[in-house]
Amino acid sequence: MSVTVEVSGSRADVSIERPDVLNALDAAHHERLLEAWDEVERDERVRVAVLRAAGDRAFCVGADMKADDPEGLDYWLRPHRAGFGGISRRGTMRFPTVARVNGHALGGGFEMVLACDLAVASTKASFGLPEVLVGRVPLDGGVRLLAASLPPKVARELLLTGRRIDAEEALARGLVNRVVEPDRLDEAVDELVDRLLRGAPLSQHAIKDALAGGDTAAATPSLIRALTSRDGEEGPRAFRERRTPTWEAR
């Protein structure tokens, strides 16, 4: 199965490895990717997850509609737990997620990028939700996520026309965090992961919960845990002592 999970230290890499079909997902690979995210979410070692794809032509172009798939079109017409790729509607990941984008991210592929907390793209990347051009609707999170990420008129243009944008426009629109040359993509992802790993895990979890709830002052269980944990004391102590904090919680 061409979907893999590799955990190294506190980092998990979830990889789609179908470059021959531009990393499009048929039903079997879609289910495996859903299982991969379940696996990563359960792994208490993981503090940051990176979603990546093989090759340099495409990150993912969505559903593999050309596949000789016994599930057929019916599979893609029904709702999927946690959305496209097992992530576009998940909303439960306690740790930050980063999309590493090289090449085209279209349809469900773009939905996965939008669902990740952060994204690093190469200059070869492009983004779009072209469903309207083939009589479909990006309902696995695409409409909601894009509308939440862009001014209304911009989101509506992209959704109603299916227009693709390049990496520089995606950066200008705030849809990705970094754009680098392809040969620097892994380095840029590693730098961002290193910065994320400096943060307190419980604080990051609480921030994600607050963002999801739309209220940065909500007394969620994760916020209470973050503020009353030993890590909540360790951070200020390390600051006073001018040293790097050592986080206990995951």
Give a brief outline of the structure.
The chain is an alpha/beta fold. The protein contains 10 helices and 10 strands. It has 2 domains: 195 residues, 2-enoyl-CoA Hydratase, Chain A, domain 1, CATH 3.90.226.10; 40 residues, no CATH class.
Explain this structure.
- The chain has 2 domains: 195 residues, 2-enoyl-CoA Hydratase, Chain A, domain 1 (Alpha-Beta Complex), CATH 3.90.226.10; 40 residues, no CATH class.
- The protein contains 10 helices and 10 strands.
- Helix 1 links the parallel strand 2 and strand 3.
- With 250 residues, the protein is an alpha/beta fold.
- Strands 1-2-3-5-7-10 form a 6-stranded mixed β-sheet, sandwiched between helices. A 4-stranded mixed β-sheet has the order 4-6-8-9.
Quickly count the domains: 2
Top CATH class of the largest domain: Alpha Beta
Q: Briefly note the structural class of the backbone.
A: alpha/beta
Biggest sheet architecture: 6 strands, mixed
The H-level CATH homologous superfamily of the largest domain, spelled out, is 2-enoyl-CoA Hydratase, Chain A, domain 1
Inertia-based shape: globular
**Assembly level:** single chain
Per CATH, the architecture of the largest domain is Alpha-Beta Complex
The helix content, as a percent range, equals: 25-40%
Residue stretches low in confidence (pLDDT < 50, at least 5 long) are: none
Q: Order of SSEs, N→C?
A: EEHEEHEEHEEHHEHEHHHH
Mean pLDDT metric: 90
Q: C-alpha Rg, in Å?
A: 19 Å
Separation, N- and C-terminal Cα atoms: 30 Å
**Total count of helical runs of at least 4 residues:** 10
CATH topology of the largest domain: 2-enoyl-CoA Hydratase, Chain A, domain 1
Strand order in the sheet with the most strands: 1-2-3-5-7-10
Strand content: 15-25%
Count of DSSP E strands? Answer: 10
